[in-house]
Amino acid sequence: MGHLDAIVVGAGLAGITAARLLQDQGRTVVVLEARDRVGGRMHTARDGRITDLGASWIHGIAGSPVAAAAEALGMPAMEFTVGGYQPDSRPIAYYAADGRRLSDAAAARFAADVHELDAALADVIADSAPDASYRDVTEQALSTRPWDDDRMQRVREYLEHRAEEQYGVRIEDLAAHGLDDDAIEGDEVVFPRGYDELPTRLAEGLDIRFGHVVSRVEWTEGARTEGARVSAAGKRFTADVVVLTVPVGVLKSGELELVPALPESNAGALARLEMNAFEKVVLRFPRSFWDEGVYAIRQQGAQGRWWHSWYDLTPLHGEPTLLTFAAGPAARTIRDWDDERVADDVMRQLRRLFGAGIPAPVGVHRTAWQDDPFARGSYAYMTVGATTADHDDLADPIGGVLHIAGEATWTDDPATVAAAMLSGHRAAERILGREVPIERLWAEM
């Protein structure tokens, strides 16, 4: 193959977006993908059932280009507005530490406390020290509340769980600004046919080389005839520019060599971001045993240290189904457990709430993103000492040749599908040197 205009490394949504927009504008593009499929961390299992193993939600459809693309592609969506770990918004069954369900009034009072704390937290975070953790700022905000110990502890626990479920990391290890993007604009939705329909459809017509694990990227600043050389699967490809969309975990692993190494501004930003440990556990049952009409079940108290939240996916899957998450320490501890042991541990908590007579699951599906060599975690988070600017700084163009994109490189809403899409769009515009409407991504499909 001859010299290309662009090589895109990775066929996740960021890579597909960049490649499609560049090709749309007449550039010659090849996408090198290590896996045998598109989508990256957007991956749907289809084994007689449909289960999103990676991304599931659009967290707020208002103004979302992902929602616009899904609608244009005719992807059916189902409203499910609690995926952003909100304390209310839709019916949530809260259970106290003793296993008894809170009354609606008690649950509303608890949610009001969370909202009150969040209002106080905004100013505390804005004034926080550069090395403050999310634990530091939440404790400072809690100290201003005239609450008794039990009331204080319930909200503290909620904040711990929110950090873990939003970013798969202990609250002490998340930067103070790590949840600055924790806002939902409009309803949240999920996709009955599977979320990976989006990257699959958008990848149509692209030249994607599967099974091409990129081992080395050599780039030369200002050399327009051969700006970069990429080694993959025993082959060498050359192009004017490279768009690198591999996850932070892969960038930091040393398995992909960059020659020369990243400049300090990009490398420093990368050093302050880290991949999380965050896994899904999907349990299917012969019958429902939880209350109808709830979107989520949440357990308070020490028993909920690991398993505290379950999401009712029955309307989505057409059979009684609960989704829970193993986050941070829980995800790392269970990584060597078999499915039966994981299910037994989850069921021990559900039986506390619903009784010993509830049925055992008839199916268990568990993810293992932290052990995936092409992901090394589910998504990136800001470590203590990081700033929100690190996301954008990681994506600063390098020598006019190397561009980094992906969910970790978008400041406004990192760790989301929208961040991946928008970062790919930005990379394409920088390479083209002009604005291109993002709607070109799905035009004429």
What features would you describe in this structure?
- The protein has 445 residues and is α/β, with parallel strands linked by helices.
- Among the domains are: 4-42 and 195-272 and 385-441, FAD/NAD(P)-binding domain (3-Layer(bba) Sandwich); 105-173, no CATH class.
- The protein has 13 helices and 20 strands.
- The strands form 5 sheets. Strands 1, 2, 8, 9, 10, 11, 12 and 20 form an 8-stranded mixed beta sheet that branches. A 6-stranded mixed beta sheet has the order 6-15-16-17-14-18.
- β9 and β10 form a beta hairpin.
- α1 (13-24) runs parallel beside α13.
- The longest helix has 23 residues, at 104-126.
- The radius of gyration is 22 Å and the shape is globular.
- It starts with a strand and ends in a 13-residue tail after the last helix.
- The mean pLDDT is 95.
Report the radius of gyration as a whole number of Å: 22 Å
The helix tally amounts to: 13
- Strand element count: 20
Strand content: 15-25%
Largest sheet: 8 strands, mixed
Give the overall shape. globular
Assigned CATH superfamily of one domain? FAD/NAD(P)-binding domain
Q: Helix/strand/pairing class, anyone?
A: alpha/beta
Distance between the termini: 28 Å
Q: What is the name of the CATH class of one domain? A: Alpha Beta
Enumerate the spans where pLDDT stays under 50 for 5 or more consecutive residues: none
CATH architecture assignment name of one domain: 3-Layer(bba) Sandwich
Secondary structure: helix percent: 25-40%
Mean pLDDT: 95
CATH topology of one domain: FAD/NAD(P)-binding domain
